[in-house]
Write a structure and sequence with these properties.
This protein has about 120 residues and is mostly beta strands. About 0% of the residues lie in helices and about 55% in strands. The chain is built from no helices and eleven strands.
Length: about 120
C-alpha cells in the first residue's frame, strides 16, 4: 500500500507562485508513475503533470511553461512548482501514484488564485 500526503496549497494573486509537495510512504523511485491532478468546481478531475521513475514528464497544455514537476530524493516527495498562476488554475490538487497495478490518491490540497 502507498500513502500520499499533499501540502503547500493556499491562496495567491494572479501571477504568483506556489509549490506543492507530495510525500509518499514508499520510495517515489519504486513507483513507476506519479503525478498531479486537479479538480475545479463543476468539472471532472484532470491530469496536470506526470513524472515516471525514469524522469519522463508530461504536462497539460494549459500549464506548459508555467508548472514544473520534479522528484526530491532527500525528502522522498514529488513536487509541483507553479508559477505565473492564473484564476483558472483554481482547484483542489491531488497527488497520484500507480503501484502494482493499483491507483493511490492523496486527500487533496486547495489552490485558489484571485485576480
Amino acid at each position: 500500500q502507498v500513502q500520499l500526503v499533499e501540502s503547500g496549497g493556499g491562496s495567491v494573486q494572479a501571477g504568483g507562485s506556489l509549490r506543492l509537495s507530495c510525500a509518499a510512504s514508499r520510495s517515489i523511485f519504486s513507483i513507476p508513475t506519479m503525478g498531479w491532478y486537479r479538480q475545479a468546481p463543476g468539472k471532472q478531475r484532470e491530469s496536470v503533470a506526470v513524472i515516471t521513475s525514469g524522469s519522463r514528464t508530461v504536462y497539460a497544455d494549459s500549464v506548459k511553461g508555467r508548472f514544473t514537476i520534479s522528484r526530491d530524493s532527500a525528502k522522498n516527495t514529488v513536487d509541483l512548482q507553479m508559477n505565473s498562476l492564473k484564476p483558472e488554475d483554481t482547484a483542489v490538487y491531488y497527488c497520484n501514484g500507480m503501484y502494482f497495478g493499483k491507483n493511490y490518491w492523496g486527500q487533496g490540497t486547495q489552490v485558489t488564485v484571485s485576480s
